[in-house]
Specification:
single chain; 7-stranded mixed beta sheet; alpha/beta
Length: 835
């Protein structure tokens, strides 16, 4: 049963369990925290630092918490008001000033985070972000990891060749995980998700709500129904609850002693709600006089925790006025000297900016991850779903730190139904985790609540402790509640902590359409949103073998990975493969040339790969055109070398993806090709993608919305669009007016034409028609050799040459259009004026 400690004025007069020396130290730490705040405020006004947010008014609550807990033993997920806590744990004033200065030697972030964003591996203070409440789920995952290591100590052993080589594991069977937040942040859903899981699992998490009654300018009664969060959470099972005057240092200490003991004994989580004050504005960017009356501010000053404890020290004869003065002078000098040293500290070098965006220890592109398949006597071809399941199974046998969780991933949460054979087990909505719980147990494979942020947020806590969470978001369409955690936490923790913390989790996500009935909420793509997130590796395999090898690399590497699995490909006939062995890996950033060709390059990934191959076969069959198809396999990093090599060979390129065209992934590659390979192009870069809308339920509409093989075929530069004689007239008039060309009419039947464009000879090049309102087509600038080549190619396609090539040798521009039937050929000659 949950316990409750009521807010009680009589506690103020009760004898504390603290010794006099401890009370003096408590006052010193509180005064130190306030003076660091005051010095930072002065430095900000002198423009020597760039931001300031204070913990003033919270000191009693936080020093008491720090004194009740064990730095370097317990774990801490503080928020930006927790200066006094961090000083109590062992953080120094100089370290805090270094963060304000943004110094290279700032131990929390190396100048990357604003001040009051605490971090210390030595003290187990996990790097904090500015986001409110995300840390609650990290604390839950951290507590789960500590419990796991206590039950499976062998998992803490290091191993060579993967991420475990670089993770030092420390755990204790009775450790407590502290997490704090302001009362305004309790409005966030992740707060409630954290309480749910902590309660369900009776985790040793100490939740501390620092209630100063304001979320910047929003008062508590606007954020919290009834104005008191304790009343709202009171019915969570197995919690210790306490509500305390957070300005009474001794009362706070006694409450934290009880709360920590409750957690340490394994009885469940604790919830301490401290009523504190905020004597300063939210930050120096805020002026609380614009929304708080003077009377309210004065009332707060009467509850200031520093004078309250000082009076108690005097009243009980623990210190006299002279003793307090000496203590304060020592602190003042300590703070002054620390600030001066910090102001002299070297600043970060610009060449350090990209350091720790990704792991500096184990690069996902390394040859370490290049291991070929080892085929066995089992030659049976398996689907992508089969080989993903096989990889998960192999890796869980290989690495005891792997845990798998998400919605419906377990075989059966009610284990008794599974163990006695009453049910077969589910193992995921697509069956990709089937049988894993049965083999590895519920400690390692388990269902999560239906809450995507809960899944990813807990994964951060697990990974920060050195475990490898492989979590599943059931459908990409429902990833959005987890984006806050992915963008601001998973991908960013390594860079913002200057490499001292990381969260190399694997997030598996089913993605994509072509399902026939998947509709809006089960068919979306949107990978470009995540490729725009530094620190996150993005993988998107197109076949069973690649899925197996890339997933193994994702698990063994030291970076967070978003592993996108196309639902349509799970059990397709295309791309099946035999089991490649338990160590097969593919390094990231290494594309696969799935079809060789010399005429045009087609760059794609995922479900567009088999469709690209169909289009390439049609181009060969109908046009004699050889298309080189590149399967990127990973989107961040991607294989630029493979793209550039192919484009330099073919001089023409199409980029195709399933997501919508505008602002899609292909735009970045197209821009880079135009920027770096312009001289190698004989045609503009073409993109093929979905329409700029959502995927419809009706299959007829879905087929039109999503790119199909014929769309890829028609994008081929050698495939011309419908062209009428009127259009030709417009084009002639346009080029005559623009370039003063002399145009010679050559009779040409109306119809659909194929353009043969050759621009490889001396002075060769291409330019696109830009006549408004007409289909675009190409004029190929040719020299003598090019004309011969173009004519030969036209003949190879079965075209009838209407004019001998010698008659057009002197032409400056030549366009050869071939009827798709190969029956006729029209030459449209444009002769440039003589200089």
């Amino acid at each position: 049963m949950a316990r409750s400690t009521a807010l009680n004025a009589e506690r103020n007069q009760a004898k504390s369990s603290l010794e006099p020396a401890q009370m003096i130290e408590m006052y010193r730490l509180m005064y130190l925290s306030r003076r660091v705040d005051d010095r930072e405020i002065m430095l900000k006004r002198q423009q020597k630092i760039y931001f300031q947010i204070s913990g003033a008014g919270h000191e009693s609550l936080l020093v008491a918490a720090g004194m009740a807990l064990k730095p370097g033993y317990d774990w801490f997920f503080p928020y930006y008001r927790d200066r006094a806590l961090c000083l109590t744990l062992g953080n120094t004033p100089e370290e805090q000033f270094l963060q304000g200065v943004g110094a290279a030697s700032d131990p929390a972030s190396g100048g990357r985070q604003m001040p009051s964003h605490w971090s210390s591996p030595k003290l187990h203070i996990v790097s904090a972000s500015s986001a409110t409440t995300t840390q609650c789920l990290h604390a839950v995952g951290c507590a789960e990891a500590g419990r796991y290591f206590s039950r499976h100590p062998e998992a803490a052993e290091k191993a060579e060749g993967d991420y475990r080589q670089y993770k030092d594991i420390v755990f204790h069977g009775d450790e407590v995980v502290y997490v704090s937040l302001g009362e305004g942040s309790t409005s966030q859903g992740e707060f409630w998700e954290a309480l749910n899981t902590a309660s369900n699992q009776k985790l040793p998490v100490l939740f501390v709500v620092e209630d100063n009654e304001y979320a910047i300018s929003v008062p508590v009664e606007v954020n919290t129904p009834g104005g008191n969060i304790s009343r709202l959470v009171a019915n969570f099972p197995d919690f210790f609850f306490a509500e305390v005057d957070g300005t009474d240092a001794l009362a706070c200490y006694d409450v934290f002693q009880e709360a920590v003991a409750y957690c340490r004994a394994g009885r469940g989580p604790a919830f301490v709600h401290g009523h504190v004050i905020r004597p300063y504005s939210h930050s120096l960017s805020d002026d609380d006089r614009s929304y708080r009356p003077e009377s309210e501010r004065q009332a707060d000053s009467l509850r200031d925790p520093l004078p309250k404890l000082q009076m108690r020290l005097l009243r009980e004869g623990i210190l006299d006025e002279e003793g307090i003065t000496r203590l304060e002078k020592r602190v003042d000098e300590e703070v002054r000297a620390a600030a001066e040293r910090a102001l002299r500290a070297p600043l970060p070098e610009p060449d350090s900016i990209l350091k720790h965006v990704y792991s500096e220890d184990l690069h996902a592109t390394s040859a370490v991850f290049d291991k070929p398949p080892v085929l066995t006597s089992d030659k049976q071809e398996r689907t992508m779903a089969d080989l993903i399941n096989a990889c998960l199974r192999d890796e869980m046998r290989h690495d005891p730190r792997i845990v798998v969780f998400g919605e419906d991933v377990a075989d059966c949460s009610r284990e008794e139904n599974l163990s006695d054979g009453r049910v077969k087990g589910k193992g995921g909505v697509f069956k990709l985790t089937a049988g894993l719980q049965a083999e590895f147990g519920s400690d390692r494979v388990f269902n999560s609540p239906l809450a995507e942020a809960n899944i990813v947020g807990r994964a951060v806590g697990y990974a920060a402790r050195g475990m490898k969470p492989v979590v599943e978001v059931q459908f990409f369409d429902y990833i959005w509640p987890a984006v806050h955690q992915i963008r601001n936490e998973v991908s960013l923790i390594r860079w913002r902590s200057n490499g001292t913390f990381s969260a190399p989790a694997v997030i598996r996500v089913a993605i994509g359409g072509y399902l026939t009935g998947g509709s809006i909420y089960h068919s979306q793509s949107g990978e470009s949103i995540f490729t725009h997130t530094p620190g996150m590796r993005i993988v998107f395999p197109s076949n069973a073998l690649d899925a197996n090898g890339l997933l193994r690399t994702a698990i063994r590497c030291d970076d967070p990975v978003l592993f996108l699995e196309h639902k349509r490909l799970y059990r397709e006939t295309y791309g099946r493969a035999a089991y490649p062995g338990a160590d097969f890996m593919i390094p990231f950033g290494k594309a696969n040339i799935v079809r060789r060709g010399n005429d045009v390059t087609l760059v794609t990934y995922g479900a567009l790969v088999p469709r690209a191959l169909q289009a390439a076969q049609k181009a060969r069959r109908e046009l004699g055109i050889e298309t080189e198809v590149i399967d990127l396999r990973t989107l961040n990093p991607y294989d630029w070398e493979a793209i550039a090599t192919s484009v330099k060979k073919t001089s023409r390129v199409i980029i195709a993806h399933e997501d919508m065209l505008s602002w899609g992934y292909g735009a970045e590659i197209a821009a880079r090709i135009a920027d770096e390979l312009f001289e190698d192009l004989d045609a503009p870069v073409k993109r093929v993608a979905a329409m700029d809308t959502f995927v419809a339920y009706q299959p007829l509409l879905e087929d039109v919305i999503l790119p199909q093989p014929d769309d890829l075929y028609r994008a081929n530069p050698f495939v011309h669009v419908e062209l009428s004689s009127t259009d030709v007239g417009k084009a002639k008039a346009f080029y005559t007016g623009l370039f003063d060309w002399q145009l010679q009419d050559i009779p040409m039947p109306e119809g659909s034409y194929t353009m043969i464009g050759v621009g490889t000879g001396t002075g060769g090049g291409m330019m696109q028609s830009m006549v408004p309102g007409m289909p675009s087509f190409w004029l190929a600038y040719v020299g003598v050799d090019d004309i011969h080549a173009a004519t030969a190619k036209a003949k190879a396609l079965g075209a009838t040459i209407m004019r001998d090539v010698t008659e057009v040798m002197d032409a400056g521009w030549l366009s050869i259009l071939v009827d798709p039937t190969g029956a006729t050929l029209g030459l449209w000659q444009a002769k440039a004026p003589t200089p």
